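Hi everyone,

Forwarding the result from last night's run.
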Amino acid sequence: MIVLNKHIKIKKVLHILWSGGSGGAEKFIYDTALHLDKDKFEPIICFLSGRGWLGEEISKHGIKVYFLGMKNGFSIIKGLRLFNIIRKVRPFIIHSHVRNYFCNFLIILFPGIYKIYFEHGGDLIGNKPKKEIFFYKYFSRFYNLILTNSHYARESMTGYVGIDPEKIRVFSIGIDLEQYNNESILKGSMRDQFKIPRNNRVIGMVGRLSEAKGGDDFIKVAHEINKIDLKENYTYVIIGDGDLREHLENMARELNVSILFLGDRKNISSLLRLFDIFLFTSKWESFGIALLESMASKIPVVGFSLPGPKEIIDRGGGILIEERSHKKLAEVVVSVLNNRNMYDKLAEDGRLNVRENFNIKKTIKKLEEEYDKFI
């Protein structure tokens, strides 16, 4: 262990998450690993499944990465490797981002290590949170601290499972604004790469193709936009992959909506230059890091209102409507695109919102303060 002086040693922080694919939790881990004060903390990453592109990118920065190759939550033999990794690494803090029961059982076998669980929302605020409730009822007592990304998620946790509110902190995830200083990337040239006509209006979304992200609602809103605005040509782009991709592709064909499915991509900051509007249609969401990425890129957000994302958008950068009406949301999208002053104000307000409230350089300091309390 590297010694800085007689009193301070670098503390190892072991982050545990499922995989290295695209997602809010994964983006948070990537930025945290890069920006954490390396004079005080050494980040180490363990992916229970595959390392993916994220693991490859983190490794390039000299950060130690492990991956177990678990295929599902019941891969016990591969999961046992986590026990040996913890014994080998001997971290000062285990910062977990997964609810895998078996791996959490292994984590609690190390009582001398401080433990933080980060609740990213997900199915806890979905329509069937039984597994999540069981997880907290059994495992929350073994964690020293629980972080969550919105006040709404915190209220859900205390309401569902009765965790002591003093044990839960709301921690607003930040992003690296410098990654989204992409004015030099010309929108037209980006569209040429994907054979999108330069004069088309481009509506997009970023997220896993799962029920929670509302890809079906995205397609239905797109269908309504095409019916409402016959004067303009629209292209729709979905960045992300998942189990529902084939279903969504079939649905788009049935509704005669032309959608460019780009799959899982790592260069989100560049691809956002394709968009004119980020269309937010999630069915449940506790936060929404893709909203921050869009606003940082000066892309206005228009979508359905949800409590967690509303905490972001209320500070500027978009319009969320309360009624879950595909037609009304389509009307708002067209209205914003037809009002240049409104569009420019939303774009500027969104960038300012991220810079003031969700800048990784500010939020990482708050995370380090939580780590410091254990020291």
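The two ends are 16 Å apart (CA to CA).

Cheers,
N.
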